[in-house]
Amino acid sequence: MTDRAPQPGPADPLSLHGVVPPTVTAFAADGSLDAAATAAHARFVVDRGATAVFPLGTNGEFPLVTADERERVVAAVASEVGGEVPVIAGVGAPSTRETVHNAQAAVDAGADGVVVVTPYYYPLDETAALTHYRRVLDAVDVPTYVYHIPSKTGNELSLSTLQQLAEAGVAGVKDSSKDVPWLGQAIDENPELTFLAGSDSLLFPGLQVGCTGMVSAVANVAPELVVDLYAAYDAGDRERARARQSTVYELRDALKRGPYMAGVKTALSLRDDAPDVGSLREPLRGMDEPDREQLAADLDALGVV
User: Hey, where are the domains in the chain?
Assistant: First the structure.
């Protein structure tokens, strides 16, 4: 499985590790879902070393797609790369009822596991959070992963809550809190779970504290870079892994130029070997021409295009 990188937790049947891109959802020029291009992007990252794919995460614009589109995204990705690598589908929603529906639909569409973002908009106490995840665990018979991103949801899980979720049967955690002390203690207290570093700013540090894999937006654009970072770490070459993290920082900064989330799809449009995934769905918007030109120069300087 792995050599010197952290091992997946025994509670995780999929043994997630390595590079797990949060793949994009492609849209046609008229804004409609392009399922074929969505599947082609999953193929793009898998052919370049991704060990699993995570459709319908933040980069997959999950809050902006309909329930029917969610199913079509999962079905397209599972049909393209399912059986080669695990497909873990984002199913989160503000309501428990909708989350359970999404989870069941994702499994029917071919997902190997489901990723449940902490419910957002309304604040939750520990009892509500535990009940929410237990409903999902009771509804589907595939591994369920917690998606912890309090900066977007407004709801942070305490270490006590996470420990109870582990006891309830979750398989792992994708942590995008950027709270390294929280993450380190969570890993220390729940060795049975698989932990995935959810921020490109903490890929190498995440491995250092015990994450088995990396959910990397940068890997949507430059999977080769992030795959090499993980391979270097797993081979015991910490110097090369740290150097790759430095390049990730530079690429991450370049991708953050312009409107929110515009960088990834713009960068893909600048790679000759990447599928055409279109633009973001409104109200998100793409880069203007000056930002696009600067991004192209940055990608060229970093050897991405």
Answer: 18-237
Q: What pLDDT is recorded for position 1?
A: 64
pLDDT in tens, 13-71: 999 999 999 999 999 999 999 999 999 999 999 999 999 999 999 999 999 999 999 99
Q: Which residues are catalytic?
A: 58, 121, 147, 174
Which CATH code for domain 18-237?
A: 3.20.20.70
**pLDDT at position 305, please?**
73
Q: How far is CA 77 from CA 30, 83, 150, 218, 296, in A?
A: 21, 11, 27, 19, 28
Quick one: which of 97, 113, 95 has its CA closest to 54?
113
Between vectors from CA 136 to CA 76 and to CA 161, what angle results, nearest 5°? Answer: 125
Tokens 């079509």, located at residue: 72
